[in-house]
Each structure stands twice: as structure tokens, then as C-alpha cells.
Amino acid sequence: MSEAFSFDAVVFERDGRRILDGLSDHIHAGVVTAIIGDSGAGKSTLLRLLNRLEEPTQGFISFHDDRIDSIDVHQLRRKVSLVGQRPVMLAQTVLGELRIADPEVTPDRAHELLARVALGEFELERKTLTLSGGEQQRLALARALTVEPEVLLLDEPTSSLDDSSATAVDQVIRDLAASGLTVVLVSHDLDRVQGVADFVLVLDHGRLVERGSPGQVRYLS
Amino acid sequence: MNTTAQIPQWTGVAASLLLVVLAAALVVYQRLGVARDLLWAAARAFVQLLAVGALLTILFAHAGLWGSALWVIGMVVLSGFVAAGRAKGLPRARVAAWIAVGLGTAATLGLLLLLRVIKAEPIVVVPVGGMVVSAAMSATALTMRAIARTATEQRAAIEARLSLGMSGVDAFSPYLREGVRTALIPAIDTTKVVGLIALPGAMTGLILAGVSPFDAIRYQIVVMYMLLAAAALSSVVVARLTTSALFDSADRLVRFTHQS
Question: Looking at the partner chain, which of B157, B161, B252 has a beta carbon nearest the beta carbon of A52?
Fold first, then answer.
């Protein structure tokens, strides 16, 4: 199994506080990797480091053997796309949302993207503000897919959703991983992690303390 | 220009002070708690205007055109501090404000001088320069404040755009447009209702000095257009400069705490 990302002694500090403390490991390509741990463990920071929304204080991160700071940052972010915890709508309509990064998206392409996130029945002119939280989160995923990323970074993708919406989003994540995408997600919901992740990394106070399949990791039990 | 206006003597000024004392007495009687502020504002205005009057008298008599230009530059420097103070925390705010107000002032005032629309004399350059700097400073401050607030409040949306591979400038462009529009609303609205709600300062001054209203409006039109242009130019310049300062070399939105 090839590596999508590798970390080499990554340290991240903000305002004098060490958030990640000498992280060295890797993330496999083509699977779903969940980063779990207690609040303040550095999970979201690690995710943001992967598409350079943050920069390590020390150490470096590689993407397919190339240091990410040597890759054009805009190219990197198109390959490694991040979807935040709460879905942020950037346009008034569904089609507008899918044209944020690529104004050339055709209605056919839009329907194709929506089908990948189980929103195939949606009207393209529907107002985004009328969508439920789960629908907005899936539309945010579809928006990220418009740039054809290799990796999706998902920060607590189901934390603000009700159970049925969260289940629908989990299914979309599994389907996207099955189509070849690498998915890295941060979650605090251990039951959902067991259902959706292939690998788990456990952080504690900025240090990697466990790694393995969901069945192997003691933190989950 | 022959002055036909009746200029009050110092006794007249003292008489007008009676109005402030009366207002303060009313405020005390009503227990509104602003009498001290009212009297302080009146005293401060008196001292400030006295100082400015003395300074302008010396300036007009001795400084010449270069001295007047230095005076305008001084106003630009001061206005940079004031405008940047409205967007505390915003990276490189003061430098951006100086450049924006300086460019807005230089372009409008310079063009009017070059085209000989206004005279290149201290008695014209100093007051007209003051009006231009004030308009540019106001638009600059409003633009910077709108941008600082937006960058703080819309962080998630801006980072969502960055995460799609957009440059910082592109990711911020919808908010930049909104910021400039918001900042220019006062200048545009003032221009729209000029003469309808209140007679503007320059025109009033000329009429009081005995100039015919029809001649006075020509001067006022030049002033209004000049102020509008200075405000628009400064707003656009500061918006661009501030947006660049919001993102680092890797197009990350820098962290700052906005204090308005």
C-alpha cells in the first residue's frame, strides 16, 4: 500500500503552546484514515497542515515523496482538498456552489458530481440556504470534488448532523474511498470511526500514541 | 473676491458661547450627565480653531507653495494613524493607510492643480487639501474596518475557497467588493443629496463671502467630484493593499485579532 503523506518530526506551535510534538508517521493512499483523540490533541491542526492552511514550526510533511512546501500551494490544495466541520455555503444556488472553483462546470457535470454524494435528485437552481445540514455537508463534498482531488480532508464531517444525516454522509465517504480517493478525517465519534475508517491514528497531547485498524486500536475499546 | 460677509467680533464669539452655557444649563437641569462633555467639546474646539487660525495665518503669509505641500503631507501622515486606528490588528494597516490616503490626495489634488482648476496658492491648497485628505481618510478607515471585520467573521468561508486551490486575492474578492461598496456609501449618499438636505460647506462659505450662488455651485461641484474621486481611489487602493497583507506567501489567511 503506497503512502499518500509522510511526516518527519513535525512540530507545530502557536502562541508559545506546542500543539503537535514531533510527529513521525505516514498515511496510506486510497483508504479512509481517521485521526482521533481527546479535545486539544492536535487532530484538526494535523489536517490543516496537510494542505498548508498551517505550516509546521519544525519538521516536514511529504505528499507522494515530495515535500509539500516544494509543491505549488494552489496545485497542492486542488489535490488535497479540505472540507470543514460546519458546511459553509459560498453561493446562493446548488449550481453556483459547484461553480465556485470551476465556473465551467456544466449542468451534466453538476448532476454527475451530485450523484457521487447521493444528491443526484437535486435541482441545480435550488437555494443552498434551504438545504438541511446533512445536505449542505454533502454539497460541500461535491464542491470539493469539482477540482478532482486525490485526497479529501474532512474535519469532523458529521459532528453537527443528526444521526440519519450523519449515516448518509458516512456512506458517501465510504463510496468516495471505494472510487479511489484517499480520505483523511478527524472525528471524536468512535462508533462512526469504526464503521467508516480503514486505519486509525490516535493523538494525545500532540503525540501519536497508537495506530492500526479500528479493531487493533485500544483507544476505541 | 470682495468679502461682503459680516465677520463676528470677539464679543460676538463670546455671545455665541452663551448658547453653549444655556445648553449646558439645560442638560444639568435635566440631569442628562453630558454637561461636562459639552463644555469640554466647546472649549477644545475654541482652542483648536484658535491654534489652526494662527498657524494658517503664518502659513499663508510665509510658507509658500512648498510649505503648503508639506502641510498637506503632514495631514496625510496624521490621517494614516487615524485610519489605521479604526482597524487595529490588521497587518501593515498604517503603511496601507498612508499609501492609500497619499495616492488619493496626490491624484485628485495634483490633477486639479495641473489643470489649473484650482489656484496653486497656499490659501487654496491648504483648505482644499484638508478636505481631500479628510475624505480619503474616511473612506480608507471604513474600507479597512470592513475588511478586518470580514476577514475575522468569514474565516471559514475564505479558507473553504483557499482549500479549493484559489489564490488569496481570488478567495477574498467577493468580500473585497462588499468592503469597498460599504465604505463608499457615505461619500456617494452625500453627493446624491448635496444641496437638498443642507448647503455644503464650500458653497455656503462662498455665498457668505458674497459670491453669487450660481458661481458658488461651480466651485462646489468641483469640490464634490474631487472628494468622491479621492474617497473612491483611496478605498480601492487600501482594499488591494490590505487584502495582500491578509495572506502570507503560501496564501494562508493570517491570524489577527480585530479590535474596532
Answer: B252
B133-171 per-residue burial string, b: 16 or more CB within 10 A, e: under 16: bbbbbbbbbbbbbbbbbbbeebeebbbbbbbbbbebeeb
Q: A-B interface: how many C-beta pairs under 8 angstroms?
A: 55
Residue B1 pLDDT greater than 50, yes or no: no
Choose, out of B153, B158, B164, the residue to mutate when testing the contact with A (most A CBs < 10 Å).
Answer: B164
pLDDT at B260 (0 to 100): 59
Instruction: Provide the pLDDT for residue B220.
Output: 85
Asked if the C-beta of A51 comes within 8 angstroms of chain B's C-beta atoms, the answer is: yes
Report DSSP state, residue B113.
Answer: H
- Please name the member of B156, B161, B252 whose beta carbon is closest to the beta carbon of A100: B161
Total number of domains in chain B: 1
Domain range enclosing A113: 3-220
Three-class SS state of B120? coil
The ipTM, to two decimals, is 0.92
CB contact under 8 Å between B161 and A143, yes or no, is no
In a domain, B127, yes or no: yes
- Segment 72-101 of chain A within 8 Å of chain B by CB: 73-75, 77-78, 81-84, 86, 88, 90, 100-101
Domain at A131, CATH number: 3.40.50.300
pLDDT (tens digit per residue) in B26-79: 999 988 888 998 999 999 999 999 998 998 898 888 888 888 899 999 999 999
Residue A104: pLDDT above 80?
yes
CA dihedral angle for residue B93, residue B97, residue B99, residue B101, rounded to 10 degrees: 170
Kindly indicate the confidence band of residue B102, based on its pLDDT and cuts at 50, 70 and 90: very high
Q: How many domains does chain A have?
A: 1
Range of the domain at B78: 64-246
